[in-house]
Design brief:
Blueprint lengths: L2 H9 L4 E6 L4 E6 L2 E9 L2 E7 L2 H10 L3 E3 L8 E5 L6 H17 L3 H7 L2
Antiparallel strand pairs: 1-2, 2-3, 3-4, 4-6, 5-6
Length: 117
């Protein structure tokens, strides 16, 4: 999967907005100001940082060398996944969906209703 493909998928989510974090040279994707994905190159490889439960993060890191704790975000919840690694695209899509859902759950009910999610 490429950075362009993962960005396109993230931006297809209701309410998704894109911005650039200059310090980290990363593209942030948020829903109503809540971050759910950060896309950039890590060690010269395309990568995305996504939020998961601490249990899932630990399991993914144990099973896949291409999943690591995120450098700039809470390491218990955020994992950096290399897009050119061993995770199949279907699993990357699932992780984006789960990260987006966690962000949406933090939003007030009125905002969630406006998003129709």
């Amino acid at each position: 999967m490429t950075i362009s493909e993962i960005l396109q998928y993230c931006m297809s989510k209701p309410g998704a907005e894109q911005s650039v974090h200059n310090d980290w040279k990363a593209t942030q994707i948020k829903v109503a100001d809540v971050l759910f994905a950060m896309v950039n190159e890590v060690e010269g490889r395309p990568a995305v940082s996504l939020k998961t439960s601490p249990e899932l993060a630990e399991l993914l890191r144990e099973q896949h060398t291409d999943v690591r704790p995120s450098r700039h975000l809470n390491k218990a919840h955020w994992s950096t996944v290399y897009l050119d690694g061993s995770l199949p695209d279907s699993q990357l899509y699932y992780l984006v969906d789960a990260s987006y859902q966690q962000a949406v759950e933090l939003l007030p009910e009125q905002v969630r209703q406006q998003l129709s999610v």
